[in-house]
Amino acid sequence: MNYIDVKIKKLNEKAKMPTYGTEFSAGADLYACLDKSVTIAPGETVFIKTGLSMEVGEGFGIFIFARSGLSIKQGLAPANKVGVVDSDYRGEVVVALHNHDSVERTVENGDRVAQMVVLPYYKAKFEEVGALSDTIRGEGGFGSTGKK
């Protein structure tokens, strides 16, 4: 098993450290850190605090994803689909939780609201060119593969 150190500072005494559900879970659960419950109306997005700030090494990022059970069963998922916590960010990790369902949903303090995955990334070196190399696919996109 490979590990990367992530330093976590609790900004609120009620904050819960991220936890892995199983030994081989890729994502660690993030918990809501709230003074009172928050009701999210259908189609609404609410910022849910975690009460944590984090530090991960250069060349890594913390990526915030939906929890499959929460998104499928309750329609709650990050509004931005995937949140990115850069290695130089030191503010509170906040989940922009969107209600995709047709009924109100309530988030309580300590609820699992998202999962975080620590991933390495490459920084792109952008180069403007006059042409790109040819491929069989070419400019075909949005469902173009597999059609005859």
Topology:
Layout: E1 6-10, E2 19-20, E3 28-31, E4 38-40, E5 45-56, E6 60-65, H1 68-74, E7 76-78, E8 83-85, E9 92-99, E10 105-107, E11 112-120
Antiparallel strand pairs: 1-5, 2-3, 3-11, 4-10, 5-9, 6-8, 6-11, 7-9
Give an overview in words.
- This protein has 148 residues and is mostly beta strands.
- 5% of the residues lie in helices and 39% in strands.
- It is built from one helix and eleven strands; from the N terminus they run ββββββαβββββ.
- Strands 2-3-11-6-8 form a five-stranded antiparallel β-sheet, with no helix packed on it. Strands 1-5-9-7 form a four-stranded antiparallel β-sheet. Strands 4-10 form a two-stranded antiparallel ribbon.
- Strand 2 and strand 3 form a beta hairpin.
- The termini are far apart.
